[in-house]
């Protein structure tokens, strides 16, 4: 079986996601809504498992990190204070022939990726440096010049007939109020972080939190992305998993280094090859940051960000203090090196922010395999999702060998017992081999088959997804075996 190219692999993953109920186009019966997707029955399970893995790692395993769930609607002044009203822009360029709009920096990034693929590493490095300089200086004319110099054409029209580069604000706005004439313009939040910052005092005082401490949150955010591409990689409605860690001024560099290392370990614990990940330090820093690093994953279309670690200084709390008139200070009675209390200060913040939808896509891509199982003249193959057992939508599938002789009843009794602890699926249609293949394709780590011998000695055959090995086991030991592979301890208690 010929090995798929990266493009073919990505297309196969997208097709697989729809066929097996992971991801659907939103409003598909009405021809869909661009850059908006629905998670199907298996996608919702996988997504929830990723949330659980993150929440346990952040909140459950850290005594000094708590979680909140803030509202999507916030006072308009929040976004003025955060800088989003005036500065949340992307450099956009239009092609005059196709009438399509593109992010100028992404056109250049795609060109850099093509140079690297063609072995033109010097050209790629030079263009990367020139683009970084232009972005840092916010030199829109230079961005257009680079697009022209490198003869970048519109993917739709194939022409190089470009407009000037302009800034485009990404926030969605809507009206808040029952009557149109008395309504107020508010925004759908473009990030979840501000909900944490405006609740800093509430959480600190009600939870009696002592610095350093963190506040975590999982929630929806909305950005009016003009460029929607690469499936669920870039969407207008997406979900973030963020943690803001509040520290003493002067200790931000130490904690930035700590969280940078800790977050990569979280990714690698799932078994992803280390060479698939890399750090990318920002050249152009956001207005609030004094350091920023992306954790990037090698998708079929190149290395892209999945998580950002940012040292946000005291910008956010100071801004909200100024705009709200409320003091966002912390009184620290611990003693400094001179033996005096640290006293009042506005804390600095280290942020870890991961895109849940990108993590979902990363997980699917990393797990997807098309295996050739042919032997001699016998042709055979299978599609496999080699998901970590903790993330698998179903932990175990229960099969009666036939639909008669009391086997379905016995299988149902086993499932009724297991489903108290594990997400299970029951199947009795088709030959056993076909049922195995379906479970391989959705990532179920174990399949339990109930046969006539089961009725005699209370043993079943359990099949392991990755190896296809089958073993006979007593029913009373099923819980223990499945738990040993699907427990969260397998991720958090490694040597």
Lay out the secondary structure.
Blueprint: H1 6-19, E1 23-25, E2 37-39, H2 41-60, E3 65-67, H3 76-82, H4 84-87, E4 89-94, E5 101-103, H5 104-117, H6 121-136, H7 140-149, E6 166-169, E7 173-176, E8 184-187, H8 193-197, H9 200-206, E9 213-222, E10 237-247, H10 252-268, E11 277-281, E12 291-299, E13 302-313, H11 315-324, E14 330-335, E15 341-345, E16 348-355, H12 356-367, E17 368-372, E18 381-385, E19 396-400, H13 407-418, E20 424-426, H14 432-442, E21 446-450, H15 452-457, E22 459-464, E23 470-474, H16 478-486, H17 489-492
Parallel strand pairs: 3-9, 19-20, 19-21
Antiparallel strand pairs: 1-2, 4-5, 4-6, 7-8, 9-10, 10-16, 11-12, 12-13, 13-16, 14-15, 17-18, 21-22, 22-23
- CATH fold node name of the largest domain: BirA Bifunctional Protein, domain 2
- Secondary-structure-based class equals alpha+beta
CATH A-level architecture of the largest domain: 2-Layer Sandwich
Q: Largest beta sheet, briefly? A: 7 strands, mixed
Give the helix proportion (percent range).
Answer: 25-40%
Which parts are unreliable, with pLDDT below 50 for 5 consecutive residues or more? none
- Main sheet: strand order: 3-9-10-16-13-12-11
CATH classification, class level of the largest domain: Alpha Beta
Tell me the CATH superfamily of the largest domain: Bira Bifunctional Protein, Domain 2
Keywords: Aminoacyl-tRNA synthetase, ATP-binding, Cytoplasm, Ligase, Nucleotide-binding, Protein biosynthesis
GO molecular function, one term: ATP binding
Protein name: Glycine--tRNA ligase
Subunit structure: Homodimer.
